[in-house]
Input
Amino acid sequence: MVNVEVVVTDRRGHRIRGLEASDFELLVDREPLPISYFTEVDEGVARSSLDDDVARVPSVVADEPVGTNYLIFIDDLHAVRQHRDRVLSRLEQDLVLLNPADRVAVVAFDGRNVSRLTDWTNSRQEISEALALARQRRADGRARLRNWGAQENQVRKAVMAATATVRAFAVAPGRKVALLLTDGWSQPARALTIMEAAPPWGDTESLYNPLVHAANQVGFSLYPIDLPGFRDMVSCSSAPLWNTSSAGNSWFSEPGVGASWRGSPTTYSTADSRYNDDRGWTLGPSTRPLRIPSPSLQGWCRRENGHEVLRFLARQTGGLPMLDGSRDRALGEAAEDTRTYYWLGFEAPRDQNDELHNIKVRLPGRRGLRVRTRKHFLDISRSTEVTMLVEGALVFDDSPGKDVLEARFGTPRKAGFRKISVPIEVSIPLDDVQLLPMDGRWRNELEFRVTLIDEHGDRSETPVDKIPIHGSRAPSPGDTFVYETELVMRRREHRYVAAVYDPLSGAILSASGDVGPATGTETPNGDAK
Output
């Protein structure tokens, strides 16, 4: 079932109550679909419906409170401490506005890991303690402001962490809301020529859509909070802009983590991942100042600071952006916005082909009413979902599946400039996968993934390698299959997550630990599981 939360207002923004399922029209890719489930939530209470042919949303009881789950995600990598702590203090003050059925979880991202400061709880004391702990954490926003050239890479890390977080906290009854405490989530930029006055927007969707798709898939509405509020904004009129990519000026290009593969029985290779290759604007030393040719760049500077991105995230998922002074009322406004709505559900045909499907909700015959809801859902494939689980496990320092793989590393050897190649041997217990008799042999084709992250939070791509298994007899208890390959990486320590996915049974087998120049057969990796 696909859940769709719908807010209906008049032209003045007043909520419209008392509608029935028959008042709504639901379209997916412009084709009408029947509404299978329907519940009106009015001031946090599920109301009875007169449409007997439409079922109530599962787990919702008539005339009983419907709790809202507030996931607070704190991006410490981009936050300026002064702004972050102010918003956290206001969130703590507004806990009194929550209903007894509401719950809160708090997580924080430091550029490499996501820390769970508290899991889902309705204990006001536990939530207050988690927010107090969050205020004690380091915030790296000031350092980020001194290094704008790396901004897109840093934002990509934070978006990946937020994506993994909403997926990890997806299992929660009731409405789900993600409060994103952000700063500097801007749109990708390209370089301007000296006389070009158009806003230099790149592809915003490619950067932020992983978070949007994940939120829509698991039913989170995004309520991004602009931490600076009425911001200490860099203005085109008050600071010189320097074009770092014009006429021979430098690229911002710091090599990231790459992964190359050489193994049997199949071969897979991928080029090195590179980060910070956005030829964008920055403040700081350069050989060539740029004069501003048009006042329109004033507006570009304001938008570049993130308002449009926050509006995009909220609009695509049915939430609201908390801009300017709204940062001081974020929890109260989110609570007010999520207490009165219509909860629709429909059974969508699933092909698991990673296709994006548009959603539109209309009120035919009721002119003048406005509808706010999420815009689409992703028909995600199981293979893509496994990749997301593996990448998310890196961020949470967690495991994406059953910890039964055994990973053994050989002695590293030089593999180019600042690179090493590390042999890896992965033992797969056949008790945990399924083999089928085909053409006189026992067969399966497993999928192998491994991804790396270094101490700076830069991670590799996650290629998928196919591992055909075929034997002349059924496996005996305790049999293993050994897969050998090599990892090519930067000459530095990394944390790895390896996973084997069995498409027949759906099982995910995993291992995690540390790998780098110190790894070798003489000193096996003790952290591997």
